[in-house]
Structure formats: C-alpha cells, structure tokens
Amino acid sequence: MDKKICVIGGGKWGQNHIKTLYQLGNLSGIVEANAERLNELLKIYPVEGFTELEQALERDFDGFTVAVPAPLHYEVAKKIIESGKSVLVEKPMTLSAETSAELVQLAEKNGVQLMVGHVLLFHPAIRKIKEIIDSGELGNLYYLYSNRLNLGTVRTEENVFWSFAPHDISVLDYFVGHPAEKIVSKGSKFLQENVYDVTITQLDYPNNVHAHIFVSWLHPFKEQRLVVIGSKGMVSFDDATAEKEIKFYDKRIDFEKGIPVKVENPTKIISYEQKQPLTEELKYFIEHLDKKIEIADGRSGLEVVKVLEEAEKKIQEG
Ligand SMILES: NC(=O)c1ccc[n+]([C@@H]2O[C@H](COP(=O)([O-])OP(=O)(O)OC[C@H]3O[C@@H](n4cnc5c(N)ncnc54)[C@H](O)[C@@H]3O)[C@@H](O)[C@H]2O)c1
Question: Residue 8: CB within 6 Å of ligand 1?
C-alpha cells in the first residue's frame, strides 16, 4: 500500500501507531513535540520527523493519526481537517460533545474522513460477537454489561470513567446499533480529592435494551468482561483471561403455563480469527482515506463523548 501516514504524538500509545504503521509499510512521518523523544524514535524508524504539526502539514502526507494527550485532540485534529487531510484521532475524540460535534461538521464540510481510535471495534472477538447478535442467535437483546477492572493506571487529571469507559461505550453502542438514550451514573472517590476511582453507569437503549458499565482502577485483579443477554441465548467474553474465549450459553427463561422455567443446554466455545485490533484499525483507516468510514467514524465518536459528558454530570450530581 502506498499511502503515506504521519503519526502525531510518539508517547506510550502513539509508539504503537508508529510501530504498526511501519510494519504495514505506511509510516512516512512522526510529529513529536519532545525533540529528545523524537530523535529516539527516528533512530528506530527512519522517516521524516518534526517537532511541530505545522511543519508536517506542509508535506504531502495522505493522512494523520493523533495520539497526543486527550486535551490536545481537538486543536490538533482541527488543524489537520482544515488542511484538507483525513485523520484518525485517539479516544476520547475530544473532551466535550461541543468540540467533537464541531470536528464532525468540519470534516464533512472539508470532505475528509474523521475516525476515532475505538480500537475494540476492530477486535476480532468483538466482531464475532456482533456477528452472533446480528444473526439473531441470541434472540432479542435484553441486557449487556462491561466490567473493566484493574489495579492502576490511576490518572490524576481524568476520572476512571473518562479513562476506561470510552471503549466500553463504543462497544455497547456497536452491539446495540444505536447510541444510548438515557444515562444514570454514580461514582466513588478514595485516592484523590477530585478524581473518581470507581463508577457504575447504567445506559438505556431503545426497544427496552439496557446495559451497565462498571469501571475501577482500584480492584484486586484484572477483568475485562463483556456479557450479552438475549431472549434466546447469552454470550460472554473476558479479554483479560489467557484463553480469551467467547462462550455461547444456550440458556434462557421460558414460560410454561405462566410459570418461568429455566432452560439450560451445554455451553459452546465460539472460535474467532486471531488478529491484532490496532493493525486492523489502522488498515481500515488507510483503506478509507477516500471512502466513507462506517466503523468508529466521527459521529459514533461524538456519541461516546456525549455519554462521557452526561455520565460525568450525573456523577458530579451524586
Ligand atoms: N486506543 C487505546 O486503547 C488507547 C490506549 C492508550 C492511550 N490512548 C490515547 O492515546 C493518547 C496518548 O496517550 P499516551 O498514553 O500515549 O500519552 P503520552 O503522554 O505517553 O504521549 C503523548 C505524546 O504526545 C507528545 N505531544 C504532546 N503534545 C504534542 C503536540 N502538540 N505535537 C506532537 N506531540 C505532542 C508528548 O510529548 C508525548 O510523547 C491519549 O489520548 C489516550 O487517551 C488510547
């Protein structure tokens, strides 16, 4: 593939963009504000390097990925879009629904693609579960939940919901095929005065579909569990286990003569392709530099930010 991509921000996560794009043969530039860090990266990846975005915008790159700290997403993405180039912005898209909506409109006006780094939407297990849901095997969707629990990484500027939940919101919206309509959220803080460590958020979707997201960085073990419950069957997946199995539970409650009866058949393990989500995400972005983005597009990124904002409001209200 001959598309030339420039990565903005070569920190902890940005270096994964850099490495993956290099492996794909599409890495052509790196913008890293820290000159020392930039030089280290250029020793490993011999591409064009810049300390300022403006220098890179003068070159002929086909697209940009943005992995700078979240408070800078808006201004960096805006400059790229205004220069007429397509961009993949890391999650969360921006820190407010207002600025996210502005980026969506700006991208449409400038005829460029805007994608958000909701990498789980490119996880082969998530794709497989979506396939199972869409095939009707689970029947009508009833309830979904996502637990993202671990000890650390504790942030000092953003709460655990902003830090962990963008992925969960994006996955639940993707599974349901619609953004949530109502949000209720509660948070608890222990470690710092103004930063919530544990939050539990309930989301109501159309057609009586409900969900919750439970996130914590103050938890004795790692769990990244997703459960989907339907009228005919149920599915679970935990990305934190060694096996990373998708389990299909042939279980449901039937009513016989008005009495609820448990139906339980053997549980099946569902196989799925082994692929790197970030590689799939970046390949998708490159393939859609000039085509409409359908997965993790700007509009779905905006819906995620709306939920983050609404949940934050509810958490603060107590
Ligand atoms: N999709 C995911 O799973 C995932 C995982 C981790 C982080 N992230 C996101 O990636 C982003 C970066 O996170 P991180 O952990 O790598 O942060 P980081 O602080 O490790 O790295 C940010 C880098 O950006 C550089 N930088 C800052 N301002 C810049 C500018 N104007 N131009 C160029 N470079 C600049 C910094 O020098 C630093 O090297 C965040 O938005 C975070 O939410 C996404």
Answer: yes
Q: Is residue 209 part of a domain?
A: yes
Are 308 and 96 spatial neighbours (Cβ–Cβ below 8 Å)? no
- 143 and 158 in one domain? yes
Report, as an integer, the average pLDDT of 213-235: 98
Is any atom of ligand 1 closer than 6 Å to the C-beta of 139? Answer: no
Q: Is the CB of 30 under 6 A from ligand 1?
A: no
299 sits in the region (left: phi over 0; alpha: psi -120 to 50; else beta) called: alpha
What is the number of helices (H) and of strands (E) in the chain? 9, 16
- Cα(90) to ligand 1 centroid in Å equals 8
Which tens digits make up the pLDDT trace of 66-113? 999 999 999 999 999 999 999 999 999 999 999 999 999 999 999 999
Q: Do 141 and 218 lie in a common domain?
A: yes
Same domain for 264 and 132: yes
**Ligand 1 pocket member 119 (CB < 6 A):** yes
**Ligand 1 atom closest to residue 68's alpha carbon, by position in its atom list:** 24
- Domain housing 70: 5-117+279-296
131 in any annotated domain: yes
Residue 219, pLDDT above cutoff 80: yes
pLDDT tens per residue, range 54-68: 999 999 999 999 999
258 & 292 share domain: no
Ligand 1 atom 41: residue of nearest CA: 70
Cα–Cα distance between 41 and 32 in angstroms, integer?
Answer: 9
pLDDT, tens digit, 9 for 90 and up, residues 149-179:
999 889 998 899 999 999 999 999 999 999 9
Residue 136 pLDDT > 80: yes
Identify whether 241 is preceded by a cis peptide bond (ω within 30 of 0): no
Domain match, 137 and 106 both: no
